[in-house]
């Protein structure tokens, strides 16, 4: 039986998940995907995510790769409908794309983009907003946020601004940041941080946001950020921002890996 690689661009509400990656205990996005794929393919089928989001972290554009059986090879639209019919309500496949042989959802990615949302008004504590942003509830010095973000662009060693432990064990800790910027929210209720890089360490975005917010609240000087970027551990880092404000927004792949429609 021949198989065809597919990319599902998925959104999910991370509030009820213990992250993307399958775990012995706890509900995960990967386990939900693989349970549905097994029903559709008639055999156990692995789902590979472009990013291993943590407990409580959301996704607007998670890349999910899997191999579809011959039954679905010529029916992308039907497979798309079937996935959304069977997946739980807190997961939705925005689009499904057939890919060329050799595609891998994680290893083929050129860049990932994350968004972090902060509420600076009193209404951020609303039960309809608190699960989806950092309900900071106080103003931030936007000039300091902008200056801090400028320092992140380029290639840096981020071990001083990431979680330590087994999940962070890598051949190196360097990431190349192409975009890092703060912007006011369109609803006027706070700010958002957008960052795009070729790779991310464990909890790197949350550590970065935590440090920049401390700078914007004048809890630490802006000059601390270059020192954190040259640190060999995270002992001097600010506490990481809470998970519910973080979204995996998009994953970029080489154009030649997409199969023709």
Verbal overview:
The protein is built from five helices and ten strands. The protein has helices spanning 29-41, 76-86, 142-150, 204-216, 224-229; strands spanning 3-12, 48-49, 58-69, 91-98, 111-119, 134-135, 154-157, 174-184, 190-197, 246-252. It folds into two domains: 3-107, Alpha-Beta Plaits (2-Layer Sandwich); 111-249, Alpha-Beta Plaits (2-Layer Sandwich), CATH 3.30.70.660. Strands 1, 2, 3, 4, 5, 6, 7, 8, 9 and 10 form a ten-stranded mixed beta sheet that branches. With 261 residues, it is an alpha+beta fold. It is globular.
**Spans of at least 5 consecutive residues with low confidence:** none
Major sheet summary line: 10 strands, mixed
Helix amount: 10-25%
What is the highest CATH level, the class of the largest domain? Alpha Beta
CATH topology of the largest domain, which one?
Alpha-Beta Plaits
- What count of structural domains? 2
> What's the CATH H-level superfamily name of the largest domain?
Pseudouridine synthase I, catalytic domain, C-terminal subdomain
Give the overall shape, derived from the CA principal axes. Answer: globular
Number of helices: 5
Keywords:
single chain, 261 residues, alpha+beta, Alpha-Beta Plaits, 2 domains, 5 helices, 28% strand
């Amino acid at each position: 039986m021949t198989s065809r690689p597919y990319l599902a661009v998925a959104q999910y509400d991370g509030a009820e998940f213990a992250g993307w990656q399958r775990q012995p205990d706890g509900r995960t996005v990967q386990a939900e995907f693989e349970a549905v794929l097994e029903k559709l393919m008639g055999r156990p089928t692995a789902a590979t995510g472009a990013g291993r989001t943590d407990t409580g972290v959301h996704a607007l554009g998670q890349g999910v790769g899997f191999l579809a059986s011959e039954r679905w090879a010529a029916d992308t639209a039907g497979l798309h409908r079937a996935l959304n019919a069977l997946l739980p309500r807190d997961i939705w496949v925005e689009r499904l794309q057939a890919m060329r042989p050799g595609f891998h959802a994680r290893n083929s990615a050129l860049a990932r983009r994350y968004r972090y949302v902060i509420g600076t008004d009193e209404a951020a504590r609303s039960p309809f907003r608190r699960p989806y942003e950092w309900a900071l509830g106080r103003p931030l010095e936007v000039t300091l946020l902008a200056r801090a973000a400028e320092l992140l662009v380029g290639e840096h060693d981020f071990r001083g601004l990431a979680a330590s432990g087994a999940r962070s064990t890598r051949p190196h800790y360097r990431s190349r940041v192409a975009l890092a910027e703060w912007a006011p929210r369109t609803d006027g209720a706070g700010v958002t941080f957008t960052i795009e890089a070729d790779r991310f360490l464990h909890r790197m975005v949350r550590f970065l946001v935590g440090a920049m917010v401390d700078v914007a609240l004048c809890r630490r000087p802006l000059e601390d950020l270059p020192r954190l970027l040259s640190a060999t551990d995270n002992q001097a880092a600010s506490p990481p921002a809470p998970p519910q404000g973080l979204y995996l927004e998009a994953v970029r792949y080489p154009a030649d890996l997409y199969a023709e429609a």
